[in-house]
Amino acid sequence: MTGFGRGVSEQARTRATVDIRSVNHRFLDLKLRGGPLAPALEEAISSRVRGGVERGSVTVSVHLVRTAGAPRINFQAAGAAHVALAELARTLGMPGPDLALVLAQPGVVALAEDDHEAPDASVLAAADAALAQLSAMRDAEGRALASELSDRLAELGAIREQIGKLAQGVPQAVHKKLSERLKKLIGDEAADKASDAAGWPEMEPSGLRPGGGIDPQRLAQEVALLADRSDVTEELVRLGSHLEQARTLVTGTESAGRRLDFLVQELGRELNTIGSKSATAEITALVVEGKAVLEKVREQVQNVE
């Protein structure tokens, strides 16, 4: 999921600005820029990011600005430096040292002790603020994605219902197709008698006996076998279960990206199986439509936390 957050904090004479950017990625890919920062501070920032982000390519940029504190004057060092410079000036026949020259001597002026304090507190406070902004933006995107995915899952549910209704008429469609093939081979009257004898409205030509006779029992077995091969009841049940699980994840509050990835794969598997078993052009067309909708779901799931 995409998002951006910026946090600014100033503590212990250190102004820290932390920017966190997130773009879509299947896994968590974290990059930390800026510094140099102590290893412990880098680990603390990484831990905070991992605690709030599970998927995405995340870049954390840290910018530090330190302000100088009030200087400390070492009067003893200043006096010693002045005496030494004055003695040197007399020896060389030059004017005595001025204040700027004395202050420039090593050890005369020191920075305030807190100027050397580690910037950890300032950086971590800024990182927390940036993460809060990032999370708010990602939450807004998540709500939009949930609405989009719910609509797509509803489309898949409707397609499943249509396939289920058409699947109920598959045996009759198979019988009709086989009957037409049988009639072309042995004639309408013989085919009708064979159908009546077998208890089916249509028959499979593979039931022909040598010499043109028909084995009604063999024909009935062939028709039943083909009808069983076209049965998609199990696939429709699993498809419905996967859709229900996906809807629960989409409307939930927990991270669901990886589980949705898995369910999308399973939905595709069931649609492929239904397509391979399809005995009618209508069911095949619905499977193609379902795959198109599922591809849209797959693209959006890549954005889900």
Structural class: alpha+beta
The fraction of residues in strands falls at: 5-15%
Rg from alpha-carbon coordinates:
39 Å
**Unreliable spans:** 198-214
- Output mean pLDDT: 81
Q: DSSP helix count?
A: 10
End-to-end distance: 6 Å
Strand arrangement across the biggest beta sheet: 1-2-4-3
| Helix coverage percent | 55-70%
Number of domains: 4
- Categorize the overall geometry: rod-shaped
How many β-strand runs?
A: 6
Provide the succession of SSEs. EEEHEEHHEHHHHHHH
* Biggest sheet overview: 4 strands, mixed
Explain what this protein looks like in three dimensions.
With 305 residues, this protein is α+β, with helices and mostly antiparallel strands. It has four domains: 3-68 and 117-137, 2-Layer Sandwich (Ribosomal Protein S5, domain 2); 72-110, no CATH class; 141-168 and 232-301; 170-229, no CATH class. The chain is 62% helix and 13% strand. It is built from ten helices and six strands. It has helices at residues 39-52, 75-92, 99-103, 120-168, 170-186, 188-198, 216-229, 233-251, 257-277, 281-301; strands at residues 3-11, 14-23, 28-34, 56-66, 72-73, 109-110. It has a four-stranded mixed β-sheet. A two-stranded antiparallel ribbon has the order 5-6. A hairpin with a 2-residue loop joins strand 1 and strand 2 (14-23). 28% of the residues are buried. Residues 198-214 have low confidence and may be disordered.
